[in-house]
Design brief:
The complex is a heterodimer of chains A (159) and B (517). Chain A is of the alpha+beta class. Chain A is 45% helix and 11% strand. Chain A starts with 8 loop residues before the first helix and ends with a helix. By secondary structure, chain B is an alpha/beta fold. Chain B folds into 4 domains: 98 residues, Glutaredoxin (3-Layer(aba) Sandwich), CATH 3.40.30; 210 residues, Rossmann fold, CATH 3.40.50.11540; 91 residues, Ubiquitin-like (UB roll), CATH 3.10.20.600; 84 residues, Up-down Bundle (de novo design (two linked rop proteins)). Chain B is globular. Chain B starts with a strand and ends in a 12-residue tail after the last helix. The chains are: A alpha+beta (159), B alpha/beta (517). At the A-B interface, helix 2, helix 4, helix 5 and strand 4 of A face helix 1, strand 12, strand 16 and helix 17 of B.
């Protein structure tokens, strides 16, 4: 399970300063912020803008454009299920409905206890091992309902 | 077995997803218990994913493979004499004799799954760096000429001649030039880029260095999608080692030329696989598509002349340099020269990467090499070329795997992904999904893609509901026409391929009468 720091402006400034030296630094900065805090804190946006001599709107535009960047912290575990065609051909839709029913959440939602965030992903490159998933950064292929149940149960129990 | 046991464990994301690291831990524990000294070598995957985790053992007869090995098989395999290559239900024999591998022409993937993926000695021992040495001795113009003569065309999907692109950058004046590798492999059904980055990363590094020294670029970026953390990890280690060894960096192999490599991580936007959106993303902006001209070869990254190539295009170059343009030209058909890594995916029995010369019939790929569906049901549709590729019915299975032949059949080869569906597939649902995917991933810059994809979903919903079916089918065709010719890039421009091919070849799934032939 990933662990994150809580937001502090001083730590944010340090991360931004470290990444700002490279060309095209916006994405590396945002990735580094999210790696540290688990999301891109709203307070960091004007700081990034000032450092890179951009407008706040421009930085917000970048943060909101990319699916990866979170505006708020995710649940303690993130379960990403691949919705792309190769996984669909192996019954992913049924599997996803099963997962949503089990966790009682929809795409992008977090369980009320804050344990699991369920997300759709469009291809993990595991198309020859479909249906596939990524749980807290680890990959799983050849899933069926039984295997996914075990995986989710193991993940939930770990927190 | 005598002395130390040697086991080869595939550690690419596909093998890991099937449990290879769990099997490795089980083997370590079991061997320790038996007091057997063993060495574990981490390789990529051979690409026979239905047999993963496929574990290989060094024996007196050469390497012997076993698979698919699960944790529960480990004790049993060791009891049966796995370390001596002895018989077992999971024994596959010599990997290179497995028909799926034996029938391939592995040029670009020659080392993948065989070598310790980040061992520089392994790489050199199997022909590594010969291409770069050749390029340095030939000089820029002759190297670019050789790549042009090989007939290599972009493997990302557009099929543009690589050598011509390089020549444009070589001939464009600029104090700073770049080589950008597009590793934003987002097409469903494709994993060739991932496999080479995680199985033989030096091939890509060598290809990029050849591009750099040939066109006069001193800096290279590899834009890898964030969905590929394993690729990022392996490639970074390989870059660090190649730099420390002086192969790339300030003085490429002592030539006096500089070529520095850096990885940049994407952030979950499919459209950044479009080359100009990728440039904007690398510059730190929203990944929006640029209008062309100017061409990236003239004004690319940070406004400087830039070579942009797909991973496989670049990874194919070392072989071409080392073995000559003619050797590469001898593979393929028509204007599609050389080999293509065909990626069999989805509901197919033999799921894996099949590198071969262009020109096989689609039916041969799916039925013969792929062995039909994994579910055992009849094959109904095959999507070739990713989420923007056309669906092919069995009636078009004689289409040859060739860029021009696929275009003529109303489809595209794209990045070489082949996703197989059995007879339970609902093609109206797949068509709607194509529009939905386009709506989710549209960069929003041009109207046909941004709005057209939303309207497309609604029109398909109306057809399926039975609301004026024929009128709405005609409207869908018109909308697709607008998207095809009015979109800025291939996202909105190509989404009509899956939608219209589904509608044309499988009208019954939309509740429409089949058209008279």
């Amino acid at each position: 399970m990933p662990s994150y720091e809580s937001w502090s402006a001083a730590r944010g400034a340090e991360i931004i300063a470290k990444e700002a030296k490279q060309d095209g630094a916006t994405l590396p900065i945002l990735h580094a912020l999210q790696r540290a805090f688990g999301y891109v804190p709203r307070e960091a946006v004007p700081m990034v803008a000032q450092t890179l001599n951009l407008s706040r709107a421009e930085v917000h535009g970048v943060v909101s454009f990319y699916h990866d960047f979170r505006h708020e912290p995710a649940g303690r575990h993130v379960v990403k299920l691949c919705r792309a065609e190769a996984c669909q051909s192996m019954g992913a839709d049924d599997l996803h409905k099963h997962a949503q029913d089990k966790l009682r959440v929809g795409w992008g939602d977090t369980t009320p206890d804050g344990r699991v965030t369920l997300e759709a992903v469009y291809c993990l490159g595991l198309c020859a091992c479909a249906p596939s998933a990524m749980v807290d950064g680890k990959v799983y292929g050849g899933l069926d309902k039984k295997k996914l149940d075990a995986l989710i149960d193991r993940t939930v129990r770990a927190s | 077995m005598s002395g130390k046991a040697r086991l080869y464990i595939p550690r690419d994301a596909g093998a890991l997803g099937m449990g290879s690291s769990d099997v490795e831990y089980a083997l370590i524990a079991a061997l320790k218990k038996r007091n057997i000294d063993a060495e574990f070598i981490h390789t990529g995957s051979r690409g026979l994913y239905w047999l993963e985790p496929m574990i290989e053992v060094a024996t007196s007869q050469g390497r012997i493979a076993y698979g698919p090995v699960q944790v529960g098989d480990v004790e049993n395999l060791l009891d049966a004499g796995m370390l001596d290559g002895k018989a077992h239900a999971l024994r596959l024999g010599k990997p290179e004799e497995i028909p799926f591998l034996k029938r391939q022409s592995r040029l670009t993937f020659a080392r993948c799954g065989i070598v310790d993926r980040i061992n520089l000695d392994d790489y050199r021992a199997l022909g590594g760096w010969q291409g770069l040495e050749k390029a340095l001795s030939l000089g820029p113009a002759a190297t670019v000429d050789l790549v042009t003569k090989s007939g290599l065309r972009g493997r990302g999907g557009a099929g543009f001649p690589t050598g011509i692109k390089w020549k444009t950058v070589l001939d464009t004046a600029g104090a700073q030039k770049y080589v950008c590798c597009n590793a934003d492999e987002g097409d469903s059904g494709t994993y060739a880029d991932r496999m080479i980055m995680e199985g033989d990363p030096y091939t890509l590094i060598e290809g990029m260095a050849i591009a750099g020294v040939s066109v006069g670029a001193t800096k290279g970026y590899i834009y890898i999608r964030s969905e590929y953390p394993h690729s990022i990890h392996v490639l970074q280690r390989a870059i660090d080692r190649a730099t420390a060894a002086g192969i790339i960096g300030a003085n490429v192999m002592g030539s006096g030329k500089a070529f520095h490599l850096e990885i940049r991580e994407g952030a979950g936007a499919y459209v950044c696989g479009e080359e100009t959106a990728m440039l904007d993303s690398l510059e730190g902006k929203r990944g929006q598509v640029r209008a062309k001209p100017p061409l990236p070869a003239h004004k690319g990254l940070f406004g400087k002349p830039t070579v942009i190539n797909n991973v496989i295009s670049l990874a194919s170059v070392p072989w071409i340099l080392a073995n000559g343009a003619d050797g590469y030209m001898n593979f393929g058909m028509g204007r599609s020269r050389g080999t293509m890594p065909i990626q069999l995916a989805g509901n197919v029995k033999h799921r894996g990467l099949f590198e071969t010369g262009f020109g096989l019939a689609l039916g041969e790929i799916v039925d013969d090499i792929g062995g039909g569906t994994a579910s055992g049901r009849p094959v109904r549709a095959v999507q070739v070329g990713g989420p923007l590729g056309a669906y092919f019915p069995r009636g078009l299975f004689d289409t040859k795997f060739d860029i021009e032949a696929f275009t003529a059949a109303g489809g595209l080869v794209g990045h070489g992904g082949v996703v197989v569906f059995d007879d339970t597939v609902d093609m109206a649902k797949m068509a709607r999904f194509a529009m939905e995917f386009c709506a989710i991933e549209s960069c929003g810059k041009c109207t046909p893609c941004r709005i057209g994809s939303m309207r497309g979903m609604e029109v398909i919903d109306r057809i399926v509901k039975g609301d004026r079916r024929d009128d709405n089918a005609a409207l869908l065709a018109e909308l697709c026409d607008t998207m095809k010719f009015g979109s800025l890039c291939a996202l909105g421009g190509f989404v009509p391929y899956p939608v219209m091919s589904a509608l044309t070849h499988f009208p019954e799934d939309f509740g429409l009468a089949a058209k008279a032939a």
